[in-house]
Structures are given as structure tokens and as C-alpha cells.
Design a protein that fits this description.
- This protein has about 900 residues and is an alpha/beta fold.
- It contains 36 helices and 31 strands.
- Strands 12-22-21-14-15-16-17-13 form an 8-stranded mixed beta sheet. An 8-stranded parallel β-barrel has the order 24-25-26-27-28-29-30-31, surrounded by 6 helices.
């Protein structure tokens, strides 16, 4: 083993930890310790820390002190249990289970029944009085150990098990007798020897040590890394390993295993939720290979254990003050708690549960706000199926994760990924999913399984990802080899359209139309809180949004270029417009007018073009100021890449060449081609645009400023309250801004004099170039506000064009872990963010009252909103649909910083 000079403690008994040690003991270990401290029935055991895992992953070997510490804790466990690991006549058996700080369901490895061997299986049979149980446990160990530790293809074991059932003419493994299982053990051992090149280890301590290392290694499997990237879990945390004395749910009908939730993770409603499986071990439940019974059925199966479980669930929920996800086993009428954690839930459940816990006095409003997030709110704003539409119902399963998903049926992950990359929307259909299906689940619009329940792998992972999921649709016969699904007399072939409703569990043939989300209707003022389920959700959203609005410091504006978008944004809670892109006003029929302006040869031609544009611009601004009356409207002066307003050079060249070959060349086309050649740019994004265009084309920005000023004067004379802000784009030096501002101030004074109005128009700039950020102190001398254009700032800091690179190498960068997330989606804090922070500090040092905002797409990204709160911006601006998300996250950022200050 590698040398480790640090005498730190690597192993903790369950009696030594607590729930606050998740960094060290992982979530599972910390919560096992917490339940032990609460006096709940937890099988004795110990946890190997995440620090030991980090040493192992860095050096390729476990730390020197670890073996001795494990030996000491194992000896104490053996003394407590009165038996030794693998003892021939009465073996102590243990499980070795992973447990990272953040829940990663099914992504890392577990091995049960460690300590069984050819010698000890007979002892277990004698002590338990059940030979079948002993051999069933042994075949499970060889199967799990072979796949997890020795890398044997799990399908080989599954095929042998299916063959044994077929030979016995039974359909479930519980119908196999002890003699059948003895034969299966022999087959499994042969598979291990053939595939792994070694015999199955008979030494119990070797089994345990190899399993511990396998759990460490499972931290860096492809599926675990993919899941971490998807959930944005840091890759350097490592996993703890929990070694726990075995309790057995496969000892007959008075034994079993289950998973319980203290509230419904799909809806948030209180009640008895979960799955139970008699005569089974825990992996059987989450794997979904046998259909479970509802947890409520346990009351009639084992009333004593049921009542005890209900009391424990209440204790845990009150202690953790949240929805708890619980794993338990009943061994011959004795209830044992194997795990608890704060449970994953759907977006709707998150909002309902947060407000329920406030009403119960378990948490306050500030904590409720932290229990939800913008990504969940965005999910609630997606459309749902139209229940009034004509549909063809195929079947019904368990509503595992809500949403309305439509796509082509596919029956394996490879096809799901392939078709999705080709632009197809797909529904991944499986008998049950396993961790190897993760990539396909990510690619699919939704997941449908014929087996499993709300606690199966498919359900848990789908809820975590916010994917629509229907599980346990037993009427559906899924044939993955023939790539089809059969329901009664109906056959769904691969490629056929299906629709799944994760809120009701219904599965439909074909495409079902969708209708707006009730949450969107609420934000638009078309729905109010009432009594039914949708209204209950709306009421919960309303309460949390109201609190977020009360506590947030950041204001939220909209990116909107017309009155229609502005009015919608206002309904969604926008407090102004942070970005009106005037170039969008010149598309369509007006494009030719701008083309004439750009190509004008004489002052007269240019002034004619400007005169034609002025009244159109003024009318645009009047509508915009009216829709946002009383709120600020930031108008960005024209900032188009020049090619957007010029004829395509290739098409024009071909037209001229053809005309010349016919000897009927058009003088206008020849002149136009000459001008386009002159203005043609290899990289228009870095060319003649923004402030540069305003300085090169005399009168262009003056015309726009005059239109803004006259529109503001018009509104003011109509008793309105226009609050226009003029933004100069793509400034790189203060001199550019000074020249444009001087001209703008002169135009505004002329309009004030002509209209007899006092216009309080402010003039600022976009900070979207690295040089502007680095010279922000100088630029602030001429600017009354900054708005960070983080889209272009990201392009210019990284040196790549978004339109080009996202399609070319971003996928590879995300897969290799170079990007945890696209820098266009969430702000790059170390690079772009550092420039924003620097510009904020320098700008405010020059002008303490400098107003600061952001108008790039990051303004609606939850994580980025927290960063903008932290650096001290005054507002964020985003698309209308993202406004509620930004409002919520601005409130969460404020509540979070208040909590940090109080600590």
C-alpha cells in the first residue's frame, strides 16, 4: 500500500458520526450514523471516509493506515455480533456499499452477502434453518461480486438465471428450490473463472478488501462521471464506503425489503408512499426486476413492522425537516433501517412540500425558498397534455416523474442517443433501466418501463434529471430484441410515435397535443389559486415567489424588442426592459431601407434614408414606452453584424456574372457588388458593428437618439412616464463613448427645446469587450450605466464564435470534462466573471452611483444570477419566459447571503 504520512482517521463506527459529516462520511454513512444516534434499529457497521477514497484514486492504492483501521473496526463488529466474518459454522456477513456526499442513485457499486463461501454457506443454512435462503444469498454474492468487482458481463449471469427458471418452468426466482440454486452457484463460479481468469475468492477478508477497492473505483466509471456532469456534482469529492452487517429480507414470506417516502416524491402529498417486496433483498426493489406491492399493503402483511415503520418515518421527517427517502429490511418480523436521505422529488412536489413544512412550523419562509430552485420552476412552466384531446390509450403505469413527453419509440440507449443527435425526439422504452442506460435516458424526452415502481432506478434517476417517466406499466410487453412493444392486439414498432404522461401514468399511441402549464397561466394572470391539484401547485408557487420578491435585492428586467414581448414580460413580473435590440426592428420589410443607408454614396442619399427610418423608429419606441410606462427601458443603438443587412456576396456575384454573359449587366447590381466587396468581412462579429458603425455612418446614431427622445417626449405630453436609457454597444475605449455621447446630448437638447419637455434620458454602454472591462474606470467617466453583454464577452474572452463552436467541439469538451457546463449557459466565473467583477469595482470607484446590469442570456441562468448578486449588480435582464426563474433565484441569492451573514 502507498505511504501516507497523515495520521488522520480513515474509519468511523456508525456510533461516531452524524448527519453533518457528509463531506467526510458521504450522505449514506452520515445518515446511518444519525439514525444510530437517534436510537433507531440500524445494523452495526462502520464507514470508510471519502479522504481514503481520494488517496486511493490519486495513488492507485489505499492509504497504509486503512487496512489496520478496517481490521480494528471489523474485530469490534465481530465481537459485538458474536461471530466472525466468513466463519464456517455461523458466518458474519456484511454489505459493502458506496455513499457519496450527493446522492447518485445506481451510479456506483454495492456488494451484498460478503463472507459467504463454499464452507460458510452450509453454516448459514444450518443457523437460518433455511437451505434455500443460504444458497440464494450465495448465488447473489457471486453474481454481484463477479459483475462489480471482477468486471464480468452481468448478462451472462442473467442468462444463466433465466435458463434455470425456464428449465424449472417457473417465472420468478423465488420459485427456484435449494437444489436449483446449488446448480446455479456452480454455473456462476464457472462463469467467473472463465471470464475473469480466476476463481471466485473463498477468503472472506479478500472478498471485503476487493469490494472496498471496487467501490472506490466506481467513483470514476463512465456512468458515474456522466451523472456528475449532468447533475453538476464536483468530480474531486470521492465516495465513502459503508461496511454494514447483513440483515436478510430473503428469509421467506415473513421477511422482505422496501423503500419508503415520508411524502409522495411525485406530488408532495402526505400519505403512505413506497414499495415493498416480500422475500427479497434490497437490490431487487430498486432494480425493478420484480414488481413490488404498494407500501400500504405492508399493514396487512406485517402490522407490527408497519406501525413501527410509520413511527420511524415521522421521527425522521421531523428530525430532518424534509421529505425523507428510506430503505428498510424486515428479517423474520424484525425491522431494520438501512438508509435515509433527503429524498429527490419532482418540481411540483418541491414547491408543495416547502410550503407544507412552513405551515407545519418545521421551517421558515427563508428555508422554504432554499428548498426550491429556478430549474424546478422552469420545469413547471412546460406545457402538459390536453385532456380534452382525442387519444388512443395504450396502457397505464405508475406516475414516476411528471411532464408531457412525445417521441419515437426506441428500445435501447444506443438508438436513443443516435436518433436524438439526428434531431429526433425519442421515448426510451425498457423492461427496466439500469445504470448503463444513463446516456440514453439523458438523450430521451421521457422514459417508459414495464417493470418497477416509484423507487426503481428509472423513477429515481428521472426525477433527479427532471425527465418525464412512467414505470411499472405491466400491460405493456416490451421485447427489446425484436424492438417492439405489444399491448393487447396493438404493436408499437421502433420509430412509432408514443406519448407518456408522467403526472397520470398514462401511455398513448401517437402524438397527444399539449396545453399551457397552469403555472404559466398564473404568471400571465389567467389563473388563481383554488382547490384542485393544479391550483394547489399554483398557490405554493405564488407563496414562494411572493417571498422571493420581498427579499431579493436584484431587480429583474426583460430582453424585449416590441410591445407584445414587453407586455408579456411585464405580466411575468419584469421591472423594465434591460435590452431592446434595435437591429431587430429593421428586419423584414425595413431591411432594404438599412441596406440603402449603409450603401449610400452621398450625404443626400444618406439623409434620405435616415429621414425614412426616423418616423418608423419613433413609432416603435412610442409603443415600447407605453407598454413599459413607469419602468426603465434600455434601448441599445444599432448593433448588427454588417452582413445581415447586405446582399449575399455569392448570390450577387453569380447574378452579375450571368448578366454579363448575356451582355445585359445591370448598373445598379454592378455598383452594389462593388460596394459589398468593399464592405465584405471575413469575421463580421468582430468587424464594422456597434459603436464603430455609428461613427462611420454619420447621422445613424443621431437618428436613433432623436427617435428615442421624440417618442419619450410624445409619451410625456400624453401624461405617460417614459424612462428611456440609451445604450451604446461594443465600446472598447472611452473616446468612442465620448464622441457618441456628445452628439446624443446635442440631439436630446434639440428635442427638449422643440417639444417643451424635460427629458431625463440616461446614456450608458455595454461592457462586452475585454478591453472595456479592463478600462471600466475610464469608461465610467462618460457612462451613467453599464450593462454587461456576457454573450459577446464570453466569445471575446474565450476567442471563439458561439454559432461555430457549439456544433463543432463543445460536445467533446463537455464529455472530457473541460467544461462542466457550456460557458454560454452558465457564466465562466474564473474568466468572464473575473472581468465583470473587476469592471464593477473600477466603474463604481469612478462613479459611485453607476447603475449596473447584465443583459446577456446569463441573466436568466440560476447559477449566474447568484454570481451577479454576489458582485453587486443592480439588475439582471433575460427573455420574458425566464423572468420568473430570475426572480426566484434573485430571492434565493439574497436569502442565502443573509444566512451566511448571520452565521
Amino acid at each position: 500500500m502507498s505511504e501516507n504520512k497523515d495520521p488522520q482517521k480513515f474509519v468511523y463506527d456508525f456510533t461516531e458520526g452524524n448527519k453533518d459529516l457528509k463531506d467526510l462520511l458521504g450522505g449514506k454513512g452520515a445518515n446511518l450514523a444519525e439514525m444510530t444516534n437517534l436510537g433507531l434499529p440500524v445494523p452495526p457497521g462502520f464507514t470508510i471516509t471519502t479522504e481514503a477514497c481520494k488517496v486511493y484514486l490519486e495513488s492507485g492504492d489505499a492509504p497504509t493506515a486503512l487496512r489496520d483501521e478496517v481490521s480494528a473496526h471489523l474485530k469490534a463488529l465481530e465481537e459485538r455480533m458474536g461471530k466472525q466474518l466468513g466463519q464456517a459454522d455461523d458466518p458474519l456477513l456484511v454489505s459493502v456499499r458506496s455513499g457519496a456526499k450527493f446522492s447518485m442513485p445506481g451510479m456506483m457499486d454495492t456488494v451484498l452477502n460478503i463472507g459467504l463461501s463454499d464452507a460458510s454457506v452450509a453454516g448459514l443454512a444450518t443457523q437460518s434453518g433455511d437451505e434455500r435462503f443460504a444458497w440464494d444469498s450465495y448465488r447473489r454474492l457471486i453474481q454481484m461480486f463477479g459483475k462489480t468487482v471482477l468486471g464480468v458481463d452481468g448478462e451472462l449471469f442473467e442468462e444463466a438465471l433465466e435458463a434455470a427458471k425456464h428449465a424449472k418452468k417457473v417465472t420468478v426466482d423465488t420459485d427456484l428450490a435449494a437444489a436449483d440454486l446449488k446448480k446455479l452457484v456452480k454455473q456462476f463460479k464457472k462463469i467467473v473463472e472463465s471470464e475473469a481468469g480466476r476463481e471466485f475468492p473463498q477468503d472472506a477478508r479478500e472478498q471485503m478488501d476487493l469490494a472496498i477497492n471496487a467501490v472506490f473505483d466506481s467513483w470514476n466509471t463512465d456512468r458515474a462521471k456522466l451523472y456528475r456532469r449532468q447533475e453538476r456534482i464536483p468530480g474531486d469529492l470521492g465516495t465513502a464506503v459503508n461496511v454494514c452487517s447483513m440483515v436478510f429480507g430473503n428469509l421467506g414470506p415473513d421477511s422482505g425489503t422496501g423503500v419508503a417516502f415520508t411524502r409522495d416524491p411525485a406530488s408532495g402529498h402526505q400519505g403512505v408512499y413506497g414499495d415493498y417486496l416480500q422475500n427479497a433483498q434490497g437490490e431487487d426493489v430498486v432494480a425493478g426486476i420484480r414488481n413490488t406491492v404498494p407500501l400500504a399493503d405492508l399493514e396487512s402483511i406485517d402490522k407490527k413492522s408497519y406501525d413501527q415503520l410509520m413511527q420511524i418515518m415521522e421521527t425522521l421527517e421531523n428530525h430532518y425537516k424534509d421529505l425523507c427517502d428510506i430503505e428498510f429490511t424486515i428479517e423474520r418480523g424484525q425491522l431494520w433501517m438501512l438508509q435515509t436521505r433527503v429524498g429527490k422529488r419532482t418540481a411540483g412536489a418541491a414547491f408543495r412540500i416547502a410550503t407544507q413544512l412552513v405551515d407545519q412550523g418545521l421551517i421558515d419562509e427563508a428555508e422554504a425558498l432554499q428548498r426550491v430552485n429556478g430549474a424546478q420552476l422552469a420545469q413547471l412552466m412546460f406545457p402538459r397534455f390536453d385532456i380534452e384531446a382525442k387519444t388512443e390509450l395504450l396502457g397505464r403505469g405508475i406516475a414516476a416523474s411528471p411532464g408531457a413527453a412525445v417521441g419515437k419509440a426506441v428500445f435501447d440507449s444506443y438508438t436513443a442517443i443516435k436518433w436524438s443527435r439526428s434531431g429526433e425526439k425519442v421515448i426510451l422504452i425498457r423492461r427496466e433501466t439500469n445504470p448503463d442506460d444513463l446516456e440514453g435516458m439523458i438523450a430521451a424526452e421521457g422514459i417508459l418501463t414495464s417493470r418497477g415502481g416509484k423507487t426503481s432506478h428509472a423513477a429515481v434517476v428521472a426525477r433527479g434529471m427532471g425527465k418525464t417517466c412512467v414505470c411499472g406499466a405491466e400491460d405493456l410487453e416490451v421485447d427489446t430484441k425484436r424492438r417492439r412493444m405489444t399491448v393487447g392486439g396493438t404493436v408499437i414498432e421502433e420509430g412509432d410515435l408514443v406519448s407518456i404522461d408522467g403526472s397520470t401514468g398514462k401511455v398513448y399511441r401517437g402524438e397527444v397535443p399539449v396545453v399551457p402549464s397552469p403555472v404559466v397561466e398564473y404568471f400571465e394572470g389567467r389563473m388563481h389559486a383554488g382547490a384542485d391539484d393544479a391550483d394547489e401547485l399554483v398557490a405554493a408557487v405564488h407563496r414562494i415567489m411572493a417571498y422571493a420578491d420581498r427579499v431579493r435585492r436584484l431587480r429583474v428586467r426583460a430582453n424585449a424588442d416590441n410591445a407584445e414581448d414587453a407586455l408579456r414580460a411585464r405580466r411575468f413580473g419584469a421591472q423594465g426592459i434591460g435590452l431592446c435590440r434595435t437591429e431587430h426592428m429593421f428586419l423584414g420589410e425595413r431591411r432594404e431601407m438599412v441596406e440603402k443607408l449603409i450603401l449610400a454614396d452621398t450625404d443626400e442619399e444618406r439623409e434620405t434614408a435616415l429621414a425614412a427610418l426616423l418616423p418608423l423608429q419613433k413609432a416603435d419606441f412610442i409603443e415600447l414606452f407605453e407598454s413599459m410606462d413607469g419602468l426603465p427601458v434600455t434601448v441599445r443603438l444599432l448593433d448588427p453584424p454588417l452582413h445581415e443587412f447586405l446582399p449575399d456576396i455569392t448570390e450577387l456575384s453569380v447574378r452579375v456574372a450571368l448578366a454579363e454573359s448575356r451582355k445585359d449587366a445591370n448598373e445598379n447590381d454592378l455598383r452594389l457588388l462593388q460596394a459589398v466587396h468593399k464592405l465584405h468581412e471575413q469575421n463580421p462579429m468582430l468587424g464594422l458593428r456597434g459603436v464603430r458603425l455609428g461613427l462611420v455612418i454619420p447621422g445613424l446614431f443621431a437618428m436613433q437618439v432623436r427617435a428615442i427622445a421624440e417618442a419619450a417626449a410624445h409619451r410625456k405630453n400624453a401624461k405617460g412616464d417614459p424612462r428611456a436609457e440609451i445604450m451604446i454597444p461594443l465600446v472598447g475605449t472611452v473616446q468612442e463613448l465620448e464622441i457618441v455621447r456628445e452628439e446624443a446630448d446635442r440631439v436630446i437638447e434639440e428635442v427638449q427645446a422643440a417639444t417643451g419637455t424635460d427629458l431625463k434620458l440616461t446614456i450608458g454602454t455595454m461592457i462586452e469587450l475585454p478591453r472595456a472591462a479592463l478600462t471600466a474606470g475610464q469608461i465610467a467617466e462618460a457612462a451613467q450605466f453599464f450593462s454587461f453583454g456576457t454573450n459577446d464577452l464570453t466569445q471575446t474572452v474565450w476567442g471563439f464564435s458561439r454559432d461555430d463552436v457549439e456544433a463543432s467541439f463543445f460536445t467533446a469538451y463537455l464529455e472530457k470534462g473541460i467544461f462542466g457546463v457550456s460557458p454560454f449557459e452558465t457564466i465562466d466565473k474564473d474568466g468572464v466573471g473575473a472581468l465583470v467583477r473587476s469592471a464593477v469595482e473600477a466603474g463604481r470607484a469612478t462613479r459611485p452611483d453607476l447603475k449596473l446590469g447584465v443583459c446577456g442570456e446569463h441573466g436568466g441562468d440560476p447559477e449566474s444570477v447568484h454570481f451577479f448578486h454576489e458582485v453587486g449588480l443592480d439588475y439582471v435582464s433575460c427573455s420574458p419566459f425566464r423572468i420568473p426563474v430570475a426572480r426566484l433565484e434573485a430571492g434565493r441569492a439574497a436569502a442565502e447571503s443573509r444566512g451566511s451573514d448571520s452565521r
